[in-house]
Amino acid sequence: MVNPQSRRITRSDVAREAGTSVAVVSYVINNGPRPVAPATKQRVLDAIQKTGYRPNEIARSLARGTTQTYGLIVPNISNPFISSMAHALQREAFANGQVLLLGDAGDDRQRERELINNLLHRQVDGLLYTSVDRHPYIELIQATGTPFVMLDRVDAAQQICAIRVDERAAAFQATQHLIEHGHRDIAIICGPLDMLNTQDRLNGWRDALQQAGLKVRNEWIFPTTYTRPGGYQAAQQMLKGPLPQALFTTNELQAFGCLRAMSEHNLSAPKDLALVCFNGTIESEYNVPSLTTVRQPLDIMAKTAIEMLKNWSGEPTIREFDFSLQLGESCGCSRFKEIDFP
After folding, report:
1. 207 DSSP assignment
2. Sign (positive/negative) of CA torsion 256, 257, 259, 263?
3. DSSP calls for 242-275
4. Does the residue 6 lie in any domain?
5. Does residue 133 sit in the same domain as residue 195?
6. Which residues form the HTH lacI-type domain (predicted)?
């Protein structure tokens, strides 16, 4: 018997153990292309077990024209929304016989490009992709012919496959909810102004104020990063001036940072400042106070994204999904409720 610890076991080792040719071993492992007599097949299977041989799955996959892997590129996996999406995608990929390889850009655009190249060199069957600054390296992927689906808003003129929610409409509904509570002075902590999703969420906030006949005060627009420190720093800046009645933060992490800054000034939500946020996760529900937040249907979105890769045709396809507003205590609502929007 060959010692499996001494070196890598090969098909030649299996063939010697079974008393057959290497070709016969290959026919058994690949279930063809030629038939193998039952007794011979059993000898090969026994030899595989005895020697501890493990087929080279990478080589087999390449021979089949598929690696049975998808790549996932995300801006920063520490973001609860991003990690929740990644978890849903991993689960759905596994259910379809695929392995999901994660590339975490760490909010670094150069690292994002290197990760894309790395996954493309590994010949993944497809890419799922959210760019650090929503200005993705689309041409880099298209040049290889690799199927890919964007997981966020991109310029429609680029003619690609993407899944998304209408973030402008979602931001409108979140801001309108604050207006329905009777608030008139509503500020916003948003992302960097050059990002497409920031522009959508900022425009949704403006739309709601203008429809209600309220003034859009540019001094109450606080751009920052989509992080806890970003929300904290923006809130500290906001608290230096007149305090608004309500605030819309354009992601959950910003809301967490804002609440920390408020507590340092002996302020709380919703008593001193009503608060709603965007892209909440389960963390919003268990925060104190629980956050009123826009929720995206991640499980359905993940299922659709994997199906788009699996059935790739190259035709540009945009799939848009409904969102919901999960009501918590931070806006002044007294009980948990979820409102769906078509």
Report:
1. H
2. positive
3. PPPSEEEESSHHHHHHHHHHHHHTT--TTTT-EE
4. no
5. no
6. 9-64
